Structures are given as C-alpha cells and as structure tokens.
Amino acid sequence: MMANYVPLYVMLPLGIVSSDNVLTDKEGLRKLMSKLKTAGIDGVMTDVWWGLVEGKGPKQYDWSAYRSVADLVKECGLKLQAIMSFHQCGGNVGDAVFIPIPKWVLDIGESDPDIFYTNRAGNRDKEYLSLGMDHLNIFQGRTAVQVYGDYMKSFREAMADLIEDEVITDIEVGLGPAGELRYPSYPQDQGWVFPGIGEFQCYDKYMKAAFKEAATKAGHPEWDLPDNAGEYNDTPDETEFFGPNGTYLTEKGKFFLTWYSNNLIIHGDDILDEANKAFLGCKVKLAAKVSGVHWWYNVESHAAELTAGYYNLYVRDGYSPIARMLSRHDAVLNFTCIEMRDSEQPAAAKSAPQELVKQVFSGAWRQHIDVAGENALPRYDSYAYNQMLLNARPQGVTEKGKPKMRGVTYLRASDDLFKEDNFDLFKIFVTRMHANQEYCSDPGKYGQELKPLTRSKPKIPIDELLEATKPYGFFPWDEETDLSVDG
C-alpha cells in the first residue's frame, strides 16, 4: 500500500511576508501550520518573492523573513516546497496582495519598456520580464538568466542547513507569469475575462527583431507577426487567425507558432540549467509549473493554449516537448486544474480540463518524468477532492509500477479551509491521498528518496524536442477514484 502513498502539501497564504519583507505574524503562522499538521499533511509550499528578497538593489539579498518561515516549517515537523517567484503577485486569479518585481528592475523598464512582454496594441505586462531579456546584459551588467541564477545560488547558501536536513525538498523554478512556463496571454489587469482567447505577447522590439531574423533565415523576410489574432476576450471564430481554415493552418502561421512556442521551451530550459547548477549536489527535486489552459480545448485551433505558448492541436502534442526538455534536468512537471471536471465548465467555453490533464500527464510519463499537480481554484467539496484523487492515481490503488503523481499541492490555507465541516472533509482527503496509510516522514518508504542533484544531461536540440509533438493516446484512466472522500 505504501507504493500508492501520494504526499500532500498545502500552499501558505500569499501575504505571510509583508511588502517590506517582514514576516507579518509569526505566531499566527505557527498556529496555522500546527493546525495543518493535525490533518497529516506532508508539507507546505510558499512563494519566495524576488521583488522582496532582492528589492533593495542588485545582489542585495535579504532572506531573513523567509529564513524565519523555513525555520517554522522545520519546527512544525513539515517539509517545504519553495517557489523561486520571479514574477509579480497581483493581476491574476486569487492574487490577494500586490508584490511587484524589484524596483531597480522596474526602473530599467522606465527607460526601456520593451523589457516587458507586449501585446500587439503595445500594452506592457510588468508581471515578468520578456524572454527576449534572457541573454541581454542590461541588468547592471547581467542577463536576466544570470540574475535568476544568482538569486537561486544565494538562496541555497542562505538555506544550506535546511536543505541538508531535508526540510526544503522541492525547488519550483518560476518561469513566467504566476510562476508558470507560459506567456502572460490572459492578464486580468488588462481586461481579460474567462473564457477569452487571450493575445500573443511578442511585440516588444526585442522579440519583433528575433522573429524577423528567424523569418529571414527561413527565406521569408516578408513575414511579420500576426495582425489578425483578435483581442483578449474574442472567441476563436471572431478572428481570422483561429477561425475555420484560419491563419494558424498556413505555412506562415505554423512557422510563427513553432517559433513562439520554441522560444518558451528554450527559456525554461536555460533557467532550469541555472537552477541545476545552483543546487548541484543538494538533496532537492527541481520542478516547473505548466498552466492548465483548458478553455477552447474542444475547438480545432485550441486558441487559448496557442496564445499562452502551448502549440497544442489535435494533430500536434504541445506539452510532450516541454516534458522532454524537463527530462534532461530530471525536473517535475507541476500542472494545474487537477480538480476540475468537464461537466462543471460552461458549454460556451468549449473546455475540457479532464482531457487536458490526461494528455499532459500521459506525455510526461512517456518522457519518464514525474508529475505533480494542484487545484487551480479554492475548493472544499467532495467532487473536487475525488477528481484530484483520481488524477493522483489514475488506475487506482494497485501494485507498484502503475503511474501515480509525485505529489499534490492544495491551494490554499485559508479561514474557509479551517471551518469545521471543510476541515473535517480535508482531513479525510489527506488520508485518502495517503492511500489510507498513516503520515510517513520517510519518502524512501513510498519510492521518493531524495538523492543529490546531479548535473543536467546535455542540451537536447530543438529538433529532437519537437519529435515529441507526435500525438499518442492517453494512459488508461478510471472513471472514478477507488478511494473517494465520501465512500
């Protein structure tokens, strides 16, 4: 039975560290984690905000608040998943506080606004630096990738003893807005409303130049970035690009979408390589988050996925190349929306979260990497819990060797979660996630012994990554979980 044990983590509240980088309520956080511990959870997750830690200037790191958080986690007998959060908090679903990226970086953006992702209308998104910045020396003599790498090295030094003690076990590397490997294609603070298709975000001068260079090299100097892909809240059929027989099916459209999505994969690969170097030899697992863009999945163009950077069609798997890239770093693919069911979505959105989860997980398992997951929205009901349990063990409690998730992170600790009825059901959920076993402090007993991080394998050429776009069927999936919270 222990082979079926899936560890359960809980995200801590967003505002535990204040905007001036101070732990706001140490005793309150201790009580919160102690309460969670009574449910039998394995650990907690927290964002470690770049905008707070390196907020005072380049390489002026202040880890004191997060050190206090990590010490409390150890005191409460829990494990910690730390997110290297290189994005802004604010402007996305559930963002209860506002934490911008560092002011010294924003100041550079004042004189050069093209460091930010930009849509066709010229609107800048200041959540996260454009991937066009990855290898430009404009941040006090460093590239964006070097800035991220230095931050992670400093974190390792500041938390060395807690990593050694296996308190900090997972490092999730932020790779885009909301910490996800994607473009900021659906920003709420620019008026996007579900289920709008979103917009491409590659119209800053650096990405424009990169596209023109790529198109010229391909023999088409006349090609430009799309001008017919609509606006944030359009439907696919309202645009020339995504409509029936749309531009996305043409040679020009395919070239653009390949370029757009390839850049995202290379961006993730480069930063994860820095993470690997930063934590080399540490007993931690690296992870990257991929967003569950489930709306418009059931239309030919998969428009919302395409604007986010996931070039996924019925005839082309857009997620397996990401999984193959992650495989060279032995990194976990963390996916959202594992609580959602198709029947809960509005029909007009042409949404299919269940099929999307199956596709992403199946592709990752074919690339021999681990998957983890989290709920996209706060839920306290048996339907959501049972769906998460089903996705954690798609073929139920079974003999060793069947696919299961490496871990589930529940979003998030809150007053609503601690209401008596909600918390009682949550405790049952934790027990079911553990396959009805008692809490186990030794990951080796359920096949997840932490080993020292070794150097990433050689870089995989983009052509080899794209070989994974050939679509395959899904792994077998049960209709319902065999360990429901209400059964």
UniProtKB/TrEMBL annotation:
Pfam families found in the cross-reference section: Glyco_hydro_14
Protein name: Beta-amylase
Alphabetical UniProt keywords: Carbohydrate metabolism, Glycosidase, Hydrolase, Polysaccharide degradation
Keyword Hydrolase: yes
Gene3D superfamilies recorded: Glycosidases
Alphabetical list of PROSITE patterns matching this protein: BETA_AMYLASE_1, BETA_AMYLASE_2
InterPro entries registered for this protein in UniProt: GH, Glyco_hydro_14, Glyco_hydro_14_CS, Glyco_hydro_14B_pln
EC number: 3.2.1.2
Catalytic activity: Hydrolysis of (1->4)-alpha-D-glucosidic linkages in polysaccharides so as to remove successive maltose units from the non-reducing ends of the chains
Family, as annotated: Belongs to the glycosyl hydrolase 14 family.
This protein's record includes keyword Cell inner membrane: no
